[in-house]
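Q: I have 297 residues here and want to know how they pack in 3D. Can you give me a structure?
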Amino acid sequence: MKRLLPLLLTAALGTAAAQDTSCTGRTVKHAMGTTCVPNSPKRVIVLDTGELDSVLALGVKPVGAVTALGSGFPTYLKGRTDGVADVGTIQQPSLERILALKPDLILSSKLRHGNLYAQLSRIAPTVMAETVGVVWKDNLKLDARALGREAQANKLLSTYYARLKKLQVRVDRKRTTISVLRFVPGQVRLMQRANFIGTILDDAGLLRPATQRKDTFSDVISAEGLPAADGSVLFYSTYGPADATDQRAFLSSPLWARLNAVRNKRAFAVNDDHWFLGIGILAANRVLDDLEQYLGN
């Protein structure tokens, strides 16, 4: 297959060039330019967890998708991803597997796969967002334009904002500060505002501790830095096996026991897949489920 791939890509390039000069579908502007996409894509491949979340929310099951470091599809999507082929990891998607699935649309982002855009475009029309994380709602709208499902995206976002309003009524926002901590192998991250979770908390009008109001992604802290994670409520998650992170050492630290949220039994372990990996509307709604459960009066 590796020997055939350059030849097949060259043949596909001729088709892509023809599409550029005479589009019989719809044109979509995106981070890498303008692409002609089918009116109703049938064989979609997604190359990030955010795109996987979006297309499933929009009612489209992709034929192929990448995983995060080979760990499988996010657990909160269990049942929805049955029959979806694994086409490699976010870091290293397999062009051979993608080509074999004969896609008619590929969705990703410039941040993740801008360097592969030319190759992917030779396989199928490819639409890329600029980046990921804080722009997850814009990315949902872009994916919806590529799929011809903008009305569905608008409905999903309207429902999301309606849920936020209901949550705001139930939470004492003047007395509540939300701290977010994530354990990953080799790092403990104190999450700031410029990330997926940060946007949801901002949308909900929930305050963050003074140590977590930066317009950056995260700070890396040591056990001695645990006081910076204090808040009236603390949410924490673990990426991968807990034993591969410093979670056990942190949670057994005397500084952990002194945190207000811990002393008041307001420190909650949450699922990393929908709090950090999902980056889409389905994940956002699962986060709102957690916020309603733990914060609602």
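Q: Anything worth noting?
A: The chain has two domains: 4-148, 157-295. The first helix runs from residue 4 to 21.
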